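request received
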Amino acid sequence: METLPSGEMCEGFGMSADKSRKSMALFQESDGDPRERFADALCAYGAAGDAACGNAPGFAARKAAAAVAFAEFAELPQDTVDALYFAGILHAVGGIGAVPASPAERWESPPRGVRICAQIPGLPSETADLVRWQLESWDGTGYPDQLRWDSIPLAAQLLLLAETVLRAQDAEEALERVNAESGRSIAPAAARLYADWLRDGGTIRDATPPVRALDASALANAIKDDHPMLLAIAQAIR
Amino acid sequence: MISASRLHEILEGVGARSVVDPCMGVPTHLNYLKRHGLAVHGSESSEWLVRVGEGIVVNDSVALLDRDIVDIVEMLPGHVYALDAFKAWEGAFFSEEQCLYLSVWRENVRNLRSDAQTGLAVLALWRVFCYWMQKAQAPDEMQDVSPSELAWHYLRQTTQWIAANARQNTVRRADALETIDACEADALLLALPSRTAHDRLDPRFSMWEAWWQSNPYFSSEPIDYARSIANLLGRAATYPAIVLATDEKREAEMASLLRAVRPSVEVFAPSANDIYLVAK
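response:
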């Protein structure tokens, strides 16, 4: 798998690797569970991805919260829900330092996001693939893999559902969009789930990062080893 | 299911710049690899899948323009159509209107000027066909879209996948052994039927071949790739690398077969349904 040099990641924040190294202290010196600071850092990193891709501020957090709300309604396993949260947060990091200018370049964002997520220490193992498949369409016309039908994991389908809902101006338009895309980009079962969720009074609330899902020992080792990915992420919480 | 982007990562890892997939299915993964610079070669026994390959694998630049789409979607003036070609499907799978469109589209696609356009059209109309089949299963959860609107949507969209990579890319209608012998590449990709939906006897694949053959009664037996996998591997000696895509259920069996021809097998198993055995 391609490894992104830390320099490339740091350039996304307009900083040098040396300068970012100092911010490692933020993880090393924090009191309590370093995963909490790290989760905040991931949220900031996700926000940087949104900014790079031209999304509205806070979009990643809303996408994560919406996907989690749908996943909990669908009664997905807790591990998957947690992985889905971080996939929502990190959905646009593939755009950092490589802002897509054409459709062909846009198709490269998910695989690039996967390469970044694969290097983030302690992330749930499912997260990277959810980032990979978040824009796959039920009818096989999505990207990057043009997966179709049940080949697309339900959790990834829920990320696309969240994206579709959040791109709408209001709840009425969101339902219209979801219905129009049912059988095309959105799985009919996911469209039905959304309608049921609405009927059940579903609302999207702010979601708290599921810190429990981050691997504490992997993070501790990464901090100890001066992991280059941490250098880039640390800068996001300056 | 094959994750083309993951496959690309694996092929990069073994230094492969060209690949042969002798049981390619719907070759969207080969399209991805082509767009990322690899020379790709595929084959299939179903003719419609080979046509799709001509549209999105071999084709470097031929698109479907709006005037071409009109010639596919609408009845051509002065042309005499056999409008009852798919009447056998009426009521069972499709409405009378849908069967008429299937007849018209079939003839119009046959009259397209190039293999590349034909392939693009077959892929786009396959998606219309799948939409209709899906809607028959979930009538209340999908909107009614007119056949011509749906066809326009997919025909226009399919053109976006066309790309050149300055390599020679090929597809052929042939059995897997013949393809393995005929092609040269850095890597051989074998995806078991569970990865291409053939072994599930998904009726959509054989029905679309029936559409292409203009014979609604056409049916095909799934090829038992798994039984012949040892033969395929035995003929792959000239390939520097072999990538065998499998699943958890068959991983042990497939790894054993692969180790019989290549001592070093690396297992890459991101999930139960997405396992790759890589041998050099």
